[in-house]
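Predict structure. Chain length: 311.
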Amino acid sequence: MWELVQNTGHAMTEYLLIALSRWRPVLEILILTVGIYYAFRFVRGTRGAPVVTGFLVVLLAFVLVTFLLKLQVLQYLLVSFSTFFALSLLVLFQPELRRMLAELGNLPLFSTAHEQRENIEVIIQTVERLADVRIGALIAIEQSIQLQEATESGIAVDCEATPEMLETIFFPNNAIHDGGVIIKGDRIALAACIFPLTQRQDLNKSLGTRHRAALGLTEETDAVVVVVSEETGAISYAYKGQLVRGVTSEELRSFLTTMLVTPARSRNWLGWLRSLTTRRVKVAPEVVVAKTEAVPTPTTTTTTTTTSIVK
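Prediction complete.
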């Protein structure tokens, strides 16, 4: 009986080893494919992109010539100096690597609900102060889609997001007060950004450039955009091409908490991924001119975008 159990155990072990040996190459190829794809996606549009392109072109040409012509000395040098090539990559792309690690640390997986609520309070305090003195503002909160790809320009700020800093940026006659601000996690990434304007024709004529820019950006990305009207001081927010105007600070806080704070139950990888695919937000109609007004539902939406400096 004991020998039968041992033989069964050995057979199952061998079967598992064979299965793993068959799936291991597929898993390795999948990991490499995903890693290379996200590496190129991260580098694309940055200052290091031309350097990466040039380096890869030279390296591939050198490898092809060396192995096709069977140049033994060059092959030996290529293998011998592979370690130095890796070190040179670390030196050349040190700023990009630092930015990548910083963005990785800003993922919702690594931030606590307390930190996320603190980031929300910074935005709430900012819009309250700006609304009181009727200073216009356009704040885009980046989520999974990089907003730098959807904007035409912007000035790199890369500082901690505080109400005082945001007020300084949007203060009239400031050199960078025109345009929008992009916030990543708890930091202000870019200022004076030109967001794409929506092309919808069914909007209320009272909507200014800020509100149209907020709609245009949220039509192309998953960002949450908060707007403060310069004329009335009214607070609005936009998400997924939908705009809600004239909200209070408590309503804005509730919406941002629903959108940005990770539920406490989603502490593991599976729960976090599930929350990304199942999270939904109930919003008002496409454009709400006032809380009590009803606006007809639009029938068509165009995808062509234009840009304009937000003033």
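Summary: The beta strands are 137-141, 155-160, 180-184, 187-193, 196-197, 224-228, 235-239, 242-247, 287-288, 306-307.
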